[in-house]
Structures are given as C-alpha cells and as structure tokens.
Amino acid sequence: MSPYAIRRYRQTMVHTADRRSAVVYLYDAAIRALRQAADAIEDGRVAEKGRRLDQAMAAVVELAGALDLESGGELARRLNLIYSFVIRALIAANSGNNPTPAREGLAVLRTLREGWEQVALGRAPEAVRNTMDASHALRC
C-alpha cells in the first residue's frame, strides 16, 4: 500500500469509525504488512519485503504520532517506547534481511491490538477505556 493509499485509508477510517476503532485499523494494517514482510524475507522476495516493511513502518509511525504524550500519561509514554521497539525491529529485519525481528515486532503488535479491540468493543472496564482513549489523540 502506498503512503497515499495509507493516508486515504486512514482518513476514511477516521471519518467512518470512532477513534478506538481507528487505532485497531492501524494495528491491522501494521500486522498484515509485517506478517507479509516476514514471509517475503523467508521466501527471498526482496522487493516485496521492502514494500511491506514500508507499509508496516507507516502504520506504526502513525500510531506513534497519534500518541498524546501530554494527557496520555504513563500509558502514552510506555506505548511510545513500545512503538520505538517495533520500529527498531523493522529496521533490523530490513537491514539484516532477517525475519526474526519482524516476527518479534509482529507479536508485540498483536498483543496491543487485542487490548485495543477489547476497548473498541466496550469490553474493557471504563477506567481502562478512559486511560487508553487519553493515550491516543487521532488527529484528522
């Protein structure tokens, strides 16, 4: 997916879904691209690896950029560190042509996505929902 397509996707999703769902959609985009990148590395498809890592990077950078470090408190700061870890994993996967860092980043993103899905579906306690809402300030 090109940066333009990701931007259009994000705009569409943000305008048609609430902020919680938009965060889940960004996780979905990152997870899908990162899984495909790891598979491409394993299969020796270098061009595909590059495209998919770029897509995953764009989604993770978008998530990191949406963090509200002022009102998001400790959760926003911790998420920022986690997103930085995932970004470093993407760089390591690309530079070392190694699927292991990609799979490690993928596992982290899947765990975070599960939590956000519970929040988006209203299954998390209200205090958790409020804290997570404050951590990401998606700006359109």
Explain how this protein is built.
This protein is an all-alpha fold and 140 residues long. The chain has one domain: Up-down Bundle (Four Helix Bundle (Hemerythrin (Met), subunit A)). The protein is built from 6 helices and no strands. Helix 2 packs antiparallel against helix 3 (46-65), helix 2 packs antiparallel against helix 5 and helix 3 (46-65) runs antiparallel to helix 4. The model has no long low-confidence stretch (mean pLDDT 87).
Task: Chart the SSEs and their pairings.
Layout: H1 3-16, H2 19-43, H3 46-65, H4 73-96, H5 99-120, H6 126-135
Helix pairs in contact: 2-3, 2-5, 3-4, 4-5, 4-6
In short:
The chain has helices at residues 3-16, 19-43, 46-65, 73-96, 99-120, 126-135.
The oligomeric status of these chains comes to single chain
CATH homologous group name: Flagellar protein FliS
| Number of separate helices | 6
Q: Can you tell me the CATH topology?
A: Four Helix Bundle (Hemerythrin (Met), subunit A)
Q: Terminal Cα separation, in Å?
A: 20 Å
Number of domains: 1
Q: Structural class of the helix and strand makeup?
A: mainly alpha
State the shape: elongated
Percent strand equals: under 5%
Question: Key terms for this structure?
Answer:
140 residues, mainly alpha, Four Helix Bundle (Hemerythrin (Met), subunit A), 6 helices, 82% helix
